Amino acid sequence: MIVAVIGLGTFGEKTATSLFEKGAEVIAIDKSERLVEKIKDRVTQAVVLDVTDERALRALDISDVDVAIVAIGDNRENSIMAVAMLRKLGVGRVIARATDPLHEHVLAEIGASETIKVEEEMGEIIASKIIAPHVLQRYNFAAGYSIVELKIGKKYAGKTLVESKIRQNYNLSIVALQKRLPFITEDGKASYRIEINDCPMPMDVIDQDDVIVLVGSEKNFNKLFSDISES
Question: Both 54 and 11 in a single domain?
Fold first, then answer.
């Protein structure tokens, strides 16, 4: 997958480098030479370019990317111009950062496929970490539904999945189990390796340090989190 990330502030830089680490081919773009220089060794290609310059974008073959992410957050006009230019040049999927509801509305009207409300989403993440500190990752994939990675803790340690009654009590589906398994390296040192069981069976045992991946509704997750916190 080829992804262009436009705007290399804190959000854009993190998005670009994370995508690259996950195997995407990343083109990082900003008009600031300093920001481009800072990221150039952590992405596929880093380019100093003004995204309102149609000729420069065409020369970059921007229409060949699978996804363009407009991460500009400090200049709404440039953000809007970037989305409009990308759509004009034939980029099929454009994801844009929105700083407020009006900005989000305008981005959608001019062709942004999706918008990201960073400030709102960060607020939700911080609140979740306070209310449910055992949650490692949370992905919203539909209205009211999430995929959640969490450490299940002492409450279920030593129990099989069927004995935990997570599905029966909370109507949540267990889709994966991650374990840290000790082993001895070739030079005789103790270490750990991560093993992912992506097809857990009812008799698989939950250990205290396991990460469990669940899918279900927010309402049912909140009930589980409340019970874990009280245990």
Answer: yes
Residue 113 sits at the vertex; the CA angle it makes with 111 and 117, to the nearest 5 degrees, is 105
Instruction: Provide the 10 A C-beta neighbour count for residue 104.
Output: 18
Chain segment 46-92, per-residue pLDDT in tens? 999 998 889 999 999 999 999 999 999 888 999 999 999 999 999 99
Residue identified by tokens 């480098």 is 17
Give the residue numbers spanning the domain of 90.
Answer: 2-117
* CA-closest candidate to residue 213, choices 130, 144, 146: 146
- How many angstroms separate the CA atoms of 96 and 69, rounded? 6
Determine contact, residues 164/207, Cβ cutoff 8 Å.
no
> Looking at the 3D structure of the chain, how many domains does it have?
2
Angle, in degrees to the nearest 10, between helices 101-109 and 76-88: 20
- Which two structure tokens, joined as six digits, stand for 85? 């230019």
Residue ending a domain, choose from 90, 117, 144: 117
**Same domain as 172, residue 96:** no
**Per-residue burial over 15-27, b = 16 or more CB atoms within 10 Å of its CB, e = otherwise:** bbbebbeeebebb
